[in-house]
Specification:
Elements: H1 13-21, H2 24-45, H3 52-70, H4 82-107, H5 111-145
Helix pairs in contact: 2-3, 2-5, 3-4, 4-5
Length: 153
């Protein structure tokens, strides 16, 4: 899952951060974190700041997965299936962002909540794209692993 550019084991944290952020998955996670910060600011400024919990949770989860994949801990901690966990994180984030953003845009509380809703719709699409790419990765890895177990051949 962490498709890094094989950095040296003694590389500094900043070097790992930069090299992982240049990968497709790293860029998607960084964009999710950035959009979640913008949405959090918009909802916090709004008079109706009740939707900040979605932005905070999704930002924290994206930060955790970014750190795990950046430091290649997904290859060391084998108790958790990181690919499926990331798929559930992205799918739930897409659904929550789309629901809360549609509520904010439709109800039109104030300008800040509408702006947060529009950014939330963009984030929902980004999280859905992330879930789709993870799903394709799972699907392709299952096709490669599907082998005949018949001993009679």
């Amino acid at each position: 899952m962490a498709d890094t550019n094989t950095s040296s084991p003694g590389a500094s944290c900043l070097e790992k951060l930069i090299s992982y952020a240049k990968t497709r998955k790293g860029f998607i996670l960084a964009a999710e974190i950035f959009l979640s910060i913008i949405i959090l600011i918009c909802y916090a400024v709004s008079a109706y700041g009740g939707y900040t919990a979605v932005a905070i949770c999704e930002m924290v989860f994206a930060l955790i997965f970014f750190g795990i994949f950046m430091m290649e801990m997904d290859k060391q901690i084998l108790v958790v299936n990181w690919v499926w966990s990331d798929l559930f994180r992205a799918a739930i984030g897409a659904v929550l962002y789309l629901i809360t953003s549609l509520i904010c845009v439709i109800r039109r509380h104030d300008d800040a909540s509408i702006t947060g809703g529009v950014f939330g719709l963009v984030a929902g699409v980004l999280f859905a794209y992330d879930a789709y790419t993870i799903f394709l990765q799972i699907k392709s890895s299952r096709q490669h692993m599907a082998a005949s177990t018949d001993d009679r051949v």
